[in-house]
Amino acid sequence: MVECLNNVITISSDRATLEDKTEIDAMISTLIASGEKEILVDLGATSYLPSELMGLFMWKKKELDSRGIKLRIIRISASLYRIFDTAMITDFFNIDASCVTKE
Q1: 70: which residues sit within 8 A by CB, 6+ positions away?
Q2: What does DSSP say about strands 8-11 and 2-5: parallel, antiparallel, or unpaired?
Q3: What confidence score (pLDDT) does residue 96 get?
Q4: Mean pLDDT of 14-18
């Protein structure tokens, strides 16, 4: 399940899906159209992201950075953090240990 409140997109299910990717892409577009300069993503309850969704986040972050809009991950589960760390993309997303939720 994906929710958007203000400028925070939250995936509240344990396993994100490809349908979530479509929803998130639409939410990001809506937030950009409304003039948001910072989009926050909460992955604190999620332990699995399909690679297509991870790719979407990476592509959107790069695109938005070039337009002066920030895409930040504000919470991430410990299991996802390990995956991001292994893939060496924690620095790309500026994720530090303070964003990691406890298991």
Answers
A1: 37, 38, 39, 64
A2: antiparallel
A3: 83
A4: 94
Is the distance from CB of 47 to CB of 102 less than 8 angstroms? Answer: no
Q: How far is CA 71 from the centre of its chain?
A: 8
Cα gap 99→29, rounded to integer Å:
25
Q: Is 11 helix (H, G, I), strand (E, B) or coil?
A: strand
What confidence score (pLDDT) does residue 103 get?
Answer: 61
Q: Vertex 59, ends 55 and 62: CA angle to 5°?
A: 140
Structure tokens that stand for 33 in this block: 């159209």
CB 62 within 8 A of CB 87: no
Helix (H, G, I), strand (E, B) or coil at 46: coil
Q: What is the pLDDT of residues 37-74, one digit of tens each?
A: 999 999 999 999 999 999 999 999 999 999 999 999 99
Q: Is the dihedral of CA 70, 72, 22, 50 positive or negative?
A: positive
